[in-house]
């Protein structure tokens, strides 16, 4: 009843034109009643148009009947049912709180003990060789509390100490070859002269003699390259690992340097680190630190190794300071290692032979750059001529074997010489 009075107050000021729109809306509402079988009990009755102050009054009355549930009602009918229902939700209704999300089984560590981001949280320190190097450097930095430059230095020393047994083995071979150098020099000169003369038999004999001498005295020149070949993968792994950390960059490395290179992620602006790195690299080549000594190489290889620091200086000038810190530390360790292995007591302890001082005449003659270059060019030209001669001889031999037989005798060599002579004498008579 209260709802009817409320509708009367709303519809009191409507005009006749508006009453038609209301009837139209009510007819739409009544059209939806048969589909849901719920609002069929609603009836709309309009009162007679009794003028009341020049206005028309419409009375909306509703008759409620028991509601039946229609399981096949559409969404529109459901909305109408909800709107027509007198039962409204209480204003003090509070829905139950949603369930709490389950906590993850493993929470990744984002910060280390120093309050810095871990390398694994920024995509580094994986299981590749470079990632393993990064894990080791992070362990030294966090566990020991070392700044990054100290962690790089300590990591370099640890890696070089692990390779020290290979250095001992290489030094033994170097000392053994040096003590047999006069005989090897004589045999090598003999082999070179035989090759230059073009006498293949004499060259093969001299080469066989040299190989027998090296086998009898257990001289293996390739052992000298054992340490450099083992250092290449380690050097590249550390280099790539530090470059990834500097390019990211790791925030703590920006203040992890020393002296003038406080930022390890940037190149050295004073070019001091590149110059010191290449200077120590040249010393390691000249002194034969890791079994590769420039004086024992052939002329071309020796000068190539000596020119390498000059060629590489412009390239490494743009490297981050962290990479040059590792390289410089490795070179300094190599130089100190040479000084340590020159002590007689140390050499005796590790079983390294004492080097015999040979007279200069028994050793290979040292040549200057121009003289050595001329000799290298002449040797290359002689080698080319020998190869051309061998190629021509092979072609002639093949042509002689596949072509027709050439007549080289004045008589038939398949018959006896005496019978031919008797026949010829009889014919003459």
Task: Write a concise keyword list for the protein shown above.
single chain, 429 residues, mainly alpha, 16 helices, 58% helix, 0% strand, elongated, disordered N terminus, YidC/ALB3/OXA1/COX18, mitochondrion inner membrane, transmembrane helix, transit peptide
CA distance, first residue to last residue:
171 Å
Shape descriptor reads elongated
Mean pLDDT across residues? 74
- What letter string, H or E per element, gives the SSE order? HHHHHHHHHHHHHHHH
Our estimate of the beta-strand percent is: under 5%
Helix content: 55-70%
Family: Belongs to the OXA1/ALB3/YidC family.
InterPro entries: YidC/ALB3/OXA1/COX18, YidC/Oxa/ALB_C
Protein name: Membrane insertase YidC/Oxa/ALB C-terminal domain-containing protein
Main location: membrane
Describe the structure.
The protein is an all-alpha fold. The chain contains 16 helices and no strands. The protein is elongated and about 145 Å long.
């Amino acid at each position: 009843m209260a709802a009817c009075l409320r509708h009367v107050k709303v519809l009191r000021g409507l005009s006749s034109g508006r009453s038609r729109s209301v009837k139209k809306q009510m007819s739409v509402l009544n059209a939806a009643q048969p589909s849901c079988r719920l609002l069929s009990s609603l009836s709309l009755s309009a009162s007679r148009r009794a003028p009341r102050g020049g206005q028309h009054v419409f009375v909306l009355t509703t008759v409620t009947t028991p509601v039946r549930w229609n399981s096949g009602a559409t969404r529109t009918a459901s909305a109408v049912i909800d709107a027509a229902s007198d039962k409204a939700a209480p204003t003090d209704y509070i829905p139950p709180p949603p369930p709490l999300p389950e906590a993850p089984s493993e929470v990744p560590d984002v910060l280390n003990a120093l309050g810095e981001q871990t390398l694994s949280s920024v995509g580094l320190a994986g299981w590749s060789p470079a990632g393993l190097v990064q894990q080791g450097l992070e362990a030294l930095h966090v566990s020991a509390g070392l700044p990054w430059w100290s962690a790089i230095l300590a990591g370099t020393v640890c890696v070089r100490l692990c390779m020290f047994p290979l250095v001992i083995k290489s030094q033994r071979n170097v000392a053994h070859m040096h003590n047999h150098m006069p005989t090897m020099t004589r045999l090598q000169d003999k082999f070179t002269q035989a090759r230059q003369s073009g006498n293949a038999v004499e060259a093969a004999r001299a080469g066989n003699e040299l190989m027998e001498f090296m086998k009898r005295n257990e001289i293996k020149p390739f052992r000298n390259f054992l340490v450099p070949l083992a250092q290449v993968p380690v050097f590249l792994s550390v280099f790539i690992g530090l470059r990834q950390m500097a390019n990211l960059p790791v925030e703590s490395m920006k203040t992890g340097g020393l002296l003038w290179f406080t930022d390890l992620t940037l190149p050295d602006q004073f070019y001091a680190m590149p110059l010191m790195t290449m200077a120590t690299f040249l010393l390691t080549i000249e002194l034969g630190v890791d079994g590769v000594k420039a004086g024992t190489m052939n002329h071309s290889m020796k000068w190539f190794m000596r020119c390498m620091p000059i060629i590489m200086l412009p390239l490494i000038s743009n490297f981050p300071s962290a990479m040059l810190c590792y390289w410089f530390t490795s070179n300094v360790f190599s130089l100190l290692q040479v000084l340590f292995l020159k002590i007689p007591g140390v050499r005796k302890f590790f079983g390294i032979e004492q080097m015999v001082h040979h007279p200069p005449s028994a050793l290979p003659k040292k040549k200057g750059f121009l003289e050595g270059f001329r000799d290298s060019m002449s040797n290359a030209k002689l080698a080319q001529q020998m190869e051309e001669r061998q190629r021509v001889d092979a072609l002639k031999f093949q042509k002689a074997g596949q072509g027709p037989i050439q007549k080289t005798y004045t008589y038939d060599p398949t018959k006896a010489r005496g019978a031919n002579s008797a026949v010829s004498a009889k014919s003459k008579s």
